[in-house]
Amino acid sequence: MLIAADKHGVFRLRDDFVAPFARRPVPWGFGALSWVTYMRTYSRDGEQWWQTCRRVIEGMFTVQRVHCLQNGRPWDEARANAFAEDGYRRMFDFRWTPPGRGLWIMGTPFMYERGGAALNNCGFVSTAGLAADFSGPFLWMFRMSMLGVGVGFDTRGRNTVTIHAPRRAPEAHVVEDSREGWAGALARCLGAYTAGGALPAGWDCSRLRPRGSRLKSFGGYASGPDPLREMLESLQSLYDAYAGRKADARLIVDTMNIIGRCVVAGGIRRSAQIAFGDPADTQFLDLKGDARKVLEYRWASNNSVFAERGMDYSETARRTVANGEPGYLWLGNARAFGRLADPPDGRDEPAAGSNPCAEQTLWDRELCCLVETYPARHADLADYLRTLRIAYQYAKTVTLLPVEDARSNEVVRRNRRIGCSMTGVVQAINRFGERAFFGWCEDAYRRVQRLDEEYSGWLGVPRSIKTTSVKPSGTVSLLAGATPGVHWAQAPFYIRRVRVSADHPLAAMCRDAGYHVEPDAYATGAAVVSFPMRVDHAGRSQAEVPLREKIELAARMQHYWSDNQVSCTAGFDPRTERDEVARVLAEYDGRIKAVAFLPVRAHGYRQPPYETVSEGRYRAMTAGLRPLRGMLEHEEQLEARFCEGEVCERPLPR
């Protein structure tokens, strides 16, 4: 075991403290949709929310306990119990939550046996060293993605390696039934084209467990061998066509995207990718122009550029207006600054990129854990500051866990980077007022710095290089009924549609409870469930907010709160705001670190995933609803139909 809980003992909450929560109603923010999201995505083996909270709290305090006892640091069981019980209450009530990775892995045997990689949301790997180690960045991407980490990568290593026609071996390569076995097959495939290895006569996947087998340690179900075979065959076809040519940006991105497609097909849907390229590299900029390749595998990454302050944005903005890409990362800003309210300090100068949602600056092969806080669910600032203590503790605790990659271990232990995130920002502003809320941000940021000084000293580890961010959130925000990150809600009242197999238990469960369930207009054998939604403190809908105001909110959060970054996907109307994109890039490139755009068009689809409705229609749809009854198991195939964020889901094409 990487975590010696068997030697030092595990932390346990008192049974008499936890027992009342088993009978307490869960304050799901979006009612039935929140429960469905939790059960299908985060509940392990049918556990209930009170049990998930217990697993998470006991897991994080066990890690602290083991660290202290192993390293001769002081450990006070009574003090730990007081903090743990307060943290449990606040998690149960959705004042804070771990990220989705934490809800799934924290406190499980997998964590104790395999360490902390799977608890991290974020990672980045650079291809700058391809000439020395071609397969290394791709293998790192594969291993981390299979653990659910969202990974960013760059194209810095383009045109430094020549692809060779491979030698052929007479025997097949036997793939072992493990993540290491899958990674070994990928290493052999890539090595045959770049390192003088031999390509096997075939890929023997007979040892892999069949599709649908339960994964006892990590949780979920096996995908079977088909995604691996498809990945290896696609890579062979791609690299055969490159024999005698340099590995350019297209080959780098396509290799990463083919790997990403394999991981998604394997059931780890949240393994997102982002590719960073040179804004002058037209080959990179036009990768999403090939519709066939996009449908095949290039959908797997969002493509962004390393922007520079003062650059000419006209050409990249033209592409952004057309299809939403590229996005923009000002790495110079991210390296030089923490919060933009503070003077530059240059502590992050080695930063090489970011995670897929661009809220975390990251060094090569760095991992980072984020944690969610929900300011709008608090009574006042003092209440929120108490929540920040447990949220900060969670993220810092994850940095104590070893990971299996030695280079990642080194950079994580040095930087101790974390991301205490706020979500539901618009709701908090609408509830407390702009002046009060940004005052909260100032006070809360100072609170996190004091906590980092206190806890780093107690634990005997370095201060965190950066501590705060705004992530876009996603399915986790659905549990709490929060608007995602800095984004506005779809509307105060709307319908959220979920597509499922017609024979899935959820369809019958919802129909029996009075929800509208109908056949999918675009897919045979599928059904569409309509969940009526009400957003507390929503204010205006996202369609009513001008593009410039969306960017301004991101800039203010970068100024007052986030010393990492603010993830912002700014929707714009291409009919009336197309010229605004280049203008806001030029005007805000000194006030933000990253931004992406989404052209919002009339979709013309039946059964869209989001549909704004009046309060009257919402009340009519909810009048006869009854509680959902039954159980839902974790379901990757149901999850895989949807993107996690509010802005990227698309219905099936007509």
If you had to describe this structure to a student in words, what would you say it looks like?
The radius of gyration is 24 Å and the shape is globular. The strands form five sheets. Strands 1, 2, 3, 8, 9, 10, 13, 14, 15, 19 and 20 form an eleven-stranded mixed beta sheet that branches. It is of the alpha/beta class and 654 residues long. Helix content is 41%, strand content 13%. The protein is built from 25 helices and 21 strands. α8 (135-146) runs parallel beside α11, α10 runs antiparallel to α11 (249-265) and α22 (547-560) packs parallel to α23 (580-588).
Features of the shown structure:
alpha/beta; disordered C terminus; 11-stranded mixed sheet; 4-stranded antiparallel sheet; 25 helices; single chain; 21 strands
Question: In a nutshell, what does this entry contain?
Answer:
With 654 residues, the protein is an alpha/beta fold. The protein is 41% helix and 13% strand.
Number of strands: 21
Radius of gyration, rounded? 24 Å
Report helical residue fraction: 40-55%
Mean pLDDT: 92
Number of helices: 25
N/C terminus separation = 51 Å
Please give the largest β-sheet: 11 strands, mixed
Report the uncertain regions. Answer: 636-654
Beta-strand percentage range: 5-15%
| Morphology | globular
By secondary-structure content and strand pairing, the structural class works out as: alpha/beta
